[in-house]
Design a protein that fits this description.
The structure holds 2 protein chains of 2 kinds. Chain A is built from 7 helices and 9 strands; from the N terminus they run E-E-E-H-E-E-H-H-H-H-E-H-E-H-E-E. Chain A is α/β, with parallel strands linked by helices. In chain A, helix 6 links the parallel strand 6 and strand 7. In chain B, 83% of the residues lie in helices and 0% in strands. Classes of the chains: A alpha/beta, B mainly alpha.
Chain lengths: 267, 272
């Protein structure tokens, strides 16, 4: 598990306690998940079961409308499943939301809103701040470091409305880093971005996994699966079609001190 | 200088000026959110739907302020409820409630004796602001500005990225209701200044002017308040010296400032 500077906020959003990971739990486990949209008989997600281990990068591959976004949204509580169990670090959906970063598709944000890049990245700290608390100098330091990591430090004071697609994507990933979350859920992170952004995103996700984080990314891009991910899960019509492994599962080494580790296997 | 001070020798004029400036600040601050979240139509609707509340309160000799406030909050919640889960599009829900409530108000006016009070409700009567009205305006201003300060970061986040806020347990829906209730309270104070029909102008025009001038949010609040205060002062003085309707004069002053800024901005672009 990654070392973080989490403290429980005095007035947490949604009155939910931030739970610590259950010992020995995997990052994400889903059992027999079924999701249907209201008024539709057909299941958008049909009996999906999967596990994402700590330190793994898993791609969720499939054509448009295969249920990728729906699946990701159910993991962060944006959609209620009809049946099935979702556990994040062994906890129910919502209890570990401070450890879960969700990167929406870029179209889901209102980029015309007057806001600077560093202010948007700062919203990643809000889950640790809660109501009424203002960002501290430490929070701003974390934000600037995240921007640095994504190579967009010089854009800190730019308006979000002036960003290119790739820069928008890097800003969203910087926010996930600033949140210091362990499980990244990304919806089409590499959709229509430039080559440089693709490299930076790849780098950041690789490093994230090495530090004990996990990645679950929806994509319909089949080209770079093997280089960018450890595993891919292919979905068609809401069902898992096949699973491909690119690296051995046991190779994960947790670089953090044992008391931060949720594997239960660290020395 | 004398012409500036002369009107202020009258108590009602001093009270009108104070009330006007407070209303201007509150409206223009909330207006920034209304403009950025594209809720202009909503603001207009809430203003119009206070009419039945005003009339009921008037007929029963209740406090007009609270009559309007209750009607505005009922409307705000009603719109949110009708358009929840996209059963109806929001602008459709607004259109239905807006015209229905306004019609109800007009029908109920048939039960009143005169049209003089109706004119005050529709077009405002800032020169007739009483001390108790003024206290109401001060309280509402404190509540609205305090709420914007306390919940500013959440209001901004739910405007830009409702999905992220939902994921971290911050309900975008509840923040929207909060904004609607603040809107209802603000609109009710604005009605005293410019009336039901023209309230949207105080809400939208200063904030829209500010959005032409800057892309930085906190500066937008300052510009927006400046435009609203200027509009209010210019409007009151022209109403005094030209003998024209106060509400109309205030709104026209704001609109003129907007027009000037818009022209200058576009001329500047053309030169480039």
């Amino acid at each position: 598990m990654m070392a973080t500077t989490h403290s429980h906020p005095l007035w947490a959003y949604g009155l939910r306690r931030h739970r610590d990971p259950q010992p020995g739990a995997v990052a994400l486990s889903i059992e027999h998940l079924k999701i249907a949209y209201p008024g539709q008989a057909k299941l958008a997600v049909d009996d999906v079961s999967l596990t994402i281990d700590i330190g793994r990068r898993v791609a969720l591959v499939g054509p448009n409308g295969a249920g990728k976004s729906t699946l990701l949204k159910s993991i962060v509580g944006l959609i209620q499943p009809r049946e099935g169990i979702i556990r994040i670090y062994g906890n129910a959906v919502g209890a570990c939301h401070h450890r879960t970063a969700y990167l929406p598709q870029r179209i889901d944000l209102d980029w015309r809103f007057p806001m600077t890049v560093k202010q948007l990245v700062m919203t990643g700290r809000y889950v640790h701040l809660g109501w009424f608390k203002r960002p501290s100098a430490e929070d701003w330091k974390i934000v600037l470091e995240s921007l640095e990591r994504l190579g967009i430090r010089e854009l800190a004071n730019s308006q979000i409305g002036e960003l290119s697609g790739g820069q928008q994507q890097r800003t969203l990933l910087a926010r996930a880093l600033a949140q210091e979350s362990s499980l990244f859920l990304l919806d089409e992170p590499l959709n229509a971005v430039d080559e440089k952004t693709r490299e930076v995103v790849d780098d950041v996700l690789r490093e994230h996994a090495l530090r004990g984080g996990s990645v679950f990314a929806a994509t319909h891009d089949l080209v770079s699966l093997e280089e960018s991910f450890d595993e891919s899960i292919h979905v068609v019509d809401g069902k898992i079609d096949r699973v491909a492994q690119y690296t051995a599962k046991s190779g994960v080494t947790c670089l953090q001190a044992p008391h931060h580790c949720a594997h239960g296997t660290c020395p | 200088m004398n012409w500036l001070l002369e009107p202020l020798e009258f108590g009602f004029m001093r009270q009108a000026l104070l009330a006007g400036i407070l209303v201007a600040i509150t409206c223009s601050a909330l207006g920034v959110f209304v403009v950025l979240r594209q809720m202009a139509f909503m603001g207009d609707a809430v203003a119009h739907t206070t009419l039945p509340g005003l009339v009921i309160a008037y007929l029963n000799r209740w406090n007009l302020f609270f009559g309007a406030l209750i009607a505005a909050i009922v409307t705000a919640i009603g719109i949110g409820w009708l358009s929840r889960r996209q059963q109806l599009r929001e602008d459709t829900a607004i259109g239905i409630l807006f015209s229905g409530m306004f019609a109800l108000g007009i029908v109920m006016i048939s039960y009143t004796n005169g049209y003089r009070d109706l004119t005050h409700m529709l077009f405002g009567n800032i020169l007739g602001v009483t001390t108790s009205d003024l206290i109401g305006i001060i309280l509402v201003s404190i509540v609205v500005l305090g709420a914007l300060l306390a919940f500013g970061k959440e209001l901004i986040l739910t405007s830009v990225d409702p999905l992220h806020s939902q994921v971290i347990g911050l309900s975008a829906e509840r923040m929207r209701y909060l904004l609607l209730i603040l809107l209802a309270m603000t609109v009710v104070t604005a009605i005293q200044a410019v009336g039901v029909v023209l309230t949207t102008a105080l809400l939208i025009t200063p904030a829209a002017t500010a959005s032409l001038l800057t892309k930085r949010m906190h500066i937008m609040f300052i510009y927006s308040a400046s435009v609203a205060i200027a509009g209010c002062v210019i409007g009151l003085y022209s109403s005094w010296y030209l003998g024209i309707s106060c509400g109309g004069a205030i709104v026209l002053a704001c609109t003129s400032i907007f027009g000037a800024v818009f022209c200058i901005r576009n001329l500047a672009f053309m030169r480039w």
